[in-house]
Design goal:
8-stranded parallel β-barrel, 8-stranded mixed β-sheet, pyridoxal phosphate, alpha/beta, De-COase2_CS, Pyridoxal-dependent decarboxylase, exosortase A system-associated, Lyase, Ornithine Decarboxylase, Chain A, domain 1
């Protein structure tokens, strides 16, 4: 398979990442498997997003996509804030120069301990349920600190064409939009610093029209809900959902189309209706997903009843998504290549499998590659997001892979 577009080069037949040949990278990190993330590709992607979005729209990084501490530190110099979904992610974000009030803490199931840390730190807690509202009230009273809060809203619509739906219908995320007025009323009299709303309708969407439609729906919904708010809306997180191409027929998102639509929404609805609001677009995968690769070395190859299996020293315990077990309905192959022989033409159809004792450990099924031999490096692209920390690393107790940011 060919290299995906996005900045990866070649040197003497080897893939290069950040200009460094992969075998040299493997020697630097002490062997395979490992993830490597290219900060220059991240810089370019953030710059492209900045250029496409209106200048007064703030960009936030969703840490869940890749919480590597060094990467978070790098992102702190590029984005306006962070969205976190656990106390540890929050602490990583607070370890950067980013001010606490630019950190939003979302996600269901926050414990009292999580909420106490968030209130004390001064981050914005995005309230996901009526019980969470009551818990934050108690925490604020106990600490004597006015909690910064926003309501996460489960809209009455979804983002069409999303890889994962995070809004519409019954959801564990957010408060149903029809219940939001009552939830807002319950904030009255509490020692809260009310900020506004967070609405996230879906993720991994490659259709600009679908994203534009969802953003308009979110703006209209929040304008209606704002009438019941206990104070002016000073924060509106529109979510994100910008997708990246993983598979052969995928086409990149038309970012300019999304930006132009958002500019129109800002002029027509958001600035007139919410003049004090800081408008945020929250992106994770879109900023880092294409800037990372996963490298693993061939340790065996075998034939079984006419099918060739190439066995590598990594697998789904590091890169679950590429195995098809992270939300794919029909399994399809991620972009894959023989990294130390990228100029060779494909001459064999093989299945690339990991070292785990399960048939689910399949990284590439019936892929055309230059005949991989023992010692060759296999590279999986689009590995910068939802890779290591989204995978069952403890399964079979293999050692963890290295992660490097170059």
């Amino acid at each position: 398979m060919g290299l995906p577009a996005g900045g990866y080069g070649r040197h003497e037949g080897q893939l290069t990442v950040g200009g460094i040949p992969v075998e040299r990278l493997a020697a630097r990190v002490g062997g395979t498997p490992f993830f490597v993330y290219d900060r220059e590709l991240i810089n370019r992607r953030v710059a492209a997003v900045r250029a496409a979005l209106p200048g007064d729209v703030h960009l936030s990084y969703a840490v869940k996509a890749n919480p590597m501490p060094a990467l978070i530190q790098h992102m702190s110099g590029l984005v306006d804030g962070f969205d976190v979904a656990s106390a540890l992610e929050m602490r990583h974000a607070l370890d950067t120069p980013t001010p606490a009030h630019r950190v939003g803490f979302a996600g269901p199931g926050k414990t009292v301990e999580d909420l106490s840390q968030a209130v004390a730190a001064g981050v914005t807690i995005e309230l996901e349920s009526e019980l969470e509202i009551a818990r934050v009230k108690r925490v604020s009273a106990d600490l004597g600190i006015a909690a910064r809060v926003a309501l996460r809203v489960n809209p009455d619509f979804t983002m069409r064409g999303s890889g994962m739906r995070l809004g519409g219908g019954p959801q564990q995320f957010g408060i149903d939009s029809e219940r939001v007025p009552d939830a807002l009323a319950s904030l009255a009299g509490a020692d809260f610093d009310f900020q506004g709303f967070h609405v996230f309708a879906g993720s991994q969407n490659l259709r600009a029209d679908n994203i534009c439609e969802a953003q308009r729906g979110i703006a209209e919904l929040v304008l209606r809900l704002a009438d019941a708010a206990p104070g002016p809306v000073r924060y509106l997180n529109l979510g994100g959902g910008f997708g990246i191409p993983y598979f052969h027929r995928d086409r990149p998102l038309d970012l300019d189309r999304v930006g132009a639509n958002l500019a129109d929404l800002m002029d027509e609805l958001i600035r007139p209706g919410l003049p004090e609001a800081r408008i945020v677009v929250e992106l994770g995968r879109y900023l880092v997903g294409e800037a990372g690769v996963y490298l693993t070395r061939v340790v065996d190859r075998k034939e079984s009843r006419g099918k060739v299996f190439v066995v590598v020293d990594g697998g789904l315990h590091h890169q679950l998504a590429a195995s098809g077990n992270f939300g794919q309905v029909i399994r399809r192959n991620y972009p894959i290549a023989v990294a130390n022989r990228v100029d060779d033409l494909p001459d064999e159809t093989v299945s690339v499998v990991g070292c785990l004792c399960t048939p689910l450990d399949l990284l590439g099924d019936d892929v055309a590659l230059p005949s991989p031999g023992v010692g060759d490096l296999i590279v999986l692209f689009q590995a910068g997001a939802y890779g290591l920390t989204a995978s069952p690393t403890a399964f079979l107790s293999h050692p963890p892979p290295a992660e490097v940011l170059i």
